[in-house]
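Honest question from a wet-lab person: if I give you the sequences of every part of a complex, can you actually get the arrangement of the whole thing, not just the pieces? Trying it with mine:
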Amino acid sequence: MLLCDIGNTYLHFYQEGKVWKELPRRLKAGMEVQEVYYISVNPPSARRLLEVYPHAIDLAPHMVLDTAYKGLGVDRMAACKGIEDGVVVDAGSAITVDVMQNQVHLGGFIMPGIASFSSMLKSISPALEKELNLSVELSALPQNTRDALSYGAIKAIVMMIQNSCKNKRLFFTGGDGKYLARFFENAIHDNSIVFKGMLKTLEEMKEGKR
Amino acid sequence: MLLCDIGNTYLHFYQEGKVWKELPRRLKAGMEVQEVYYISVNPPSARRLLEVYPHAIDLAPHMVLDTAYKGLGVDRMAACKGIEDGVVVDAGSAITVDVMQNQVHLGGFIMPGIASFSSMLKSISPALEKELNLSVELSALPQNTRDALSYGAIKAIVMMIQNSCKNKRLFFTGGDGKYLARFFENAIHDNSIVFKGMLKTLEEMKEGKR
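Yes, you can. This is the full assembly:
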């Protein structure tokens, strides 16, 4: 069985505990796979997956989450189902932060991803076109432009996550998940959280719940 | 005497306590003005000003601020000189936050402006193309995409300013200065802070300090 989480940039795959990613244009038919399940926030990439695996099944219509949130993306739903309790941060092109309590989704928010901060600043002024310094000191006021931009992006993201997690367990996934996790004690970094939510949905389908 | 603060988007003018702004392409020769002083972070717009006021004098070489910060923009320098003590937030296309203590600059940071958050999120995914909700509730977890985006931008900006100001006085200027000031008790909104710093520089020049 092959699982695929189709994001804004990459297609993320999961098979027997292994996780990898591909750009849509680099996607090639892999081994013969009997079952392929996917979720997608990117229709062109989903069409690309279906060219390669025409029998792939979209899990979105089967995914149910207890929430008052209107229009929650299917990837965030899967991440929430994947943790059941705590705060899940999916740090990719965008950073989503969602709070779960006893399998109930309490709400969440969206920030630009780290790379987006860079490109956003660049578009304001060429003077702000700097590679972010990922090692910037967050406890002292910056003393140059590159650090000022890095601090303004990274500290903002870190403080927003801190503010949302209080005493809850904190889970990180996505391309910048590992980097962000190191700002927090006891944070869990796990690139299979979304897939765990997809597997849970499959179990629920088999149990006839959905 | 006419003062001009040339930003990334607008030219901001000051004359006899009045403040107004113009887009560079809409700039027309005004009344006869004997003295014109300017600062600029935008060379094409500065050239445009000099077409209209060929005798305008750049204050940048005369502006001195006690700081360890390398490469501080001349507009931030002027804002710092304009407050002397406290935290000054200039909220335009970019948001700059600078901390002053007894006329000494302790450092500062840069975040994308509110409009930049919007356009950045739009560029990540069409699903994130929403006008920000400037009245979003910052004390409860968002329950829809538009609020999730607004909360992720506005709360991040507000928390970063809060974190930097501690017990210091807080000054706001720039296009979104008035909006942001309302999140803080006793914040001062003043669209002439940068001009006050320019006037201070002129005084110093006359006193022969520079």
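Two things worth pointing out. Chain B has a mean pLDDT of 93. Chain B touches chain A through 51 residues (CB under 8 Å).
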